[in-house]
Structures are given as C-alpha cells and as structure tokens.
Amino acid sequence: MVASPLVASDVTKAVKALLAYRSKQGRGLDLDADFLTVQIGLKQAPITPSPKPRLVALPHPLKDASELSCCLIVKAADKPWLKALAVDGEAPGPKVKLTKLDGTRAANRARREETTRAPGSGVETDAGKLVDKVLAFDKLRSSYKQYKDKRELRDRFDVFLADDRVAPMLGKLLGSTFFGRKKQPIVVKVTRPESLAAQIRKATACAHVVLKEGTCVAANLAHTDMSADECVANVVAGVNAVVGDLVPKKWNNVLSVSLKLPESAALPLYNADPTAGAGLPDAPPAATAPAKRADTPAAPAKKPAKKGRARRRAPAKRATTRSPPPRRRRPRSPRPRRGRRRGARGEARAVPQGGEKAAVLGRAA
C-alpha cells in the first residue's frame, strides 16, 4: 500500500492563500459561502464510471443537519407510514403480509400496489423530524413533467433521498435538471425503519463525489465559512478517502491534486511524475541490430547513379468504357392510302383499287 504523499503544510498554505484572495475581492461579508473544490487528475479513467453519488466522510460536516432541507422519494404505497416516521416522528406499525408472487401479471401488479407496513402506531420516536417532504414516485412522474416544474423542485431542497426500489427509474425521469447541478438522489433503504435515521444523517453530513468517464474527479470538501484548520482537516481527510476508496490503483493512478475557489486559479497540492508509477505501461526496449560474423563477406558497393536527363515515364493509359451502339429504329411499313380525292371538276371521286385504276385512266384519255 502506497502512503499518502499529501503534505499538510502545503494544504495549509493553499487554504490561507485562497481565503486571503477571497477577502481581497470584497466578498468577505457575503451571506453565501463559496466551496473549496478539490480536483484530482488521474492517469487512467475509472473502469466503471457511474452517476450514482458516493459518500465521503469528513471530520467537519459541510452544513448542520438542521439547516438542510431534504426530500425523500418513495413508492406511493409506502408514503403513509414513511411520512409519519420521517416527518411527524411517529413509529411505524407492524409489517403487512404481502401477496405471494406466482409469476403472473396480476400478482406482480398487486405486489407493487401493496404497502410493506401499516400506518403510524401513534408512538413517537427519538429521531424526530428527519426530512421536510415525502414525495411519491407516481406524483413525481405525473406532476413534474415540464422543465420549469423540475427546476423549482430542484431549487426547493438541498438534498434528495430515494428509496432503493425506485432509484433505478429516476435517472431518465429527473434528467439533466438534477444531474447538471449534481443533485442526484442518494439511495437509502426505507424497508429498515430502525436504521433510516442513521442513513439520512450520514447522507447529509458526508460529501458527495461522482466518478465520471473522464480523468478528473472533483469534490467540494470545505467552504469559506469554516476556519483554516477545519478546511485543512477536511481537505486532507477527504482526498485520502477519495483516493483510497474510490480511485482505482489508488495513489499510483493519481497525476495531480489541486485546490481552488469558483473564481480563482487552481493551486497545486501534489504533482506526480507522469512517466513513473504502476499506472502507465512500461516503454518497450530499444531494438538492437544483430552482430555480424567476422568471416561474412562484405556486401558489394552500389554503383553511383549516372547523371543526365531523367527519363520520363509514359502516363498510364486510362481504362475507357465504350458506349453501347445506338439502337436502330425499325422502319415503318407504308400504310395504304385510303380515302376520297377530288377530280378535275371538283367532284369527289372514289380512289380506284387494283384493275379499276387502268380502266379509269383509259376512260379519261
């Protein structure tokens, strides 16, 4: 295992320089804090990228759980007892016997429409209020079709949670509206109500990291409202957790680590030699010519080329395609002339046929 080459003193210098830069820009009294983003450059891209957010534990949470607004997306059948548990703080009722699956469509449809537990039992829990809204999947699919409705829902809550049974169907439904702002829902198992509170607290306290198809991994590990020591502790712990748990080949695959603000230059924290390490393949050995034997006769020297006018080569003949001969038209056979013609006096006479023609001519003479 390769030890972490990240030096805490270099991180301290970078954090102090970024905080001083922000104060010089006249933004020291802003109500909205800016995130300190860590960028990790990799030698090789991840083999299995996924839009699913990964949780990274930090020694100092980015925000207090009481300041965050959460939305939980669940099945429509389980909304009554989950709303009583997560919003009202009421313990769920006993489990409900579900329909046995026998491979038929009717059984599958009935199973999807059944709830796993009875509504609230009336007993309050110690967890208290966990989320601000419980949204049914059917309501999300029917009432948030347009882009503006999805955008309003995205801006209304800070963190989105989803039941593991409906999470695979949310990618196409939410679209780039949520994925562009890195607000993908975090998967939780609501079928275990005794551990639901711990899952929600972990999701709100940890940083969220997404492994994309490229060679750059970015994560928000601190913000400007924290002290310098808290920022340094979060950056060191977060980078070691991301590289140790999420990056393949760990530090052998890390090329660089830098820290920046949204409007500042990236300050380097670590730079590796790109040609060293196990992340890149070794260079092939140089090819060497075989040694010649002493008794091998020397090759005859080539004759020098004669100087003179270079002989021009005849251009290659192009293959020509002969056009087919024109089609000959069959001569038409003369049609016999039929009809009546006028005589010398203008009266119409019939055209004689055959031997009658000679008699007519003799009579005219």
From TrEMBL:
Q: Which InterPro entries match?
A: eL8/uL1-like, Ribosomal_uL1-like, Ribosomal_uL1/biogenesis, Ribosomal_uL1_3-a/b-sand
CDD domains per record: Ribosomal_L1
Q: Coiled coil where?
A: none
- Residue ranges for the region (Disordered) are 278-365
Return the Low complexity bias intervals: 278-302
In terms of Pfam families, this protein maps to: Ribosomal_L1 (PF00687)
Specify residue ranges for compositional bias: Basic residues.
Answer: 303-343
Q: This chain belongs to which protein, by name?
A: Ribosomal L1 domain-containing protein
Q: Which organism is it from?
A: Aureococcus anophagefferens (Harmful bloom alga)
Its taxonomic path starts at:
Eukaryota, Sar, Stramenopiles, Ochrophyta, Pelagophyceae
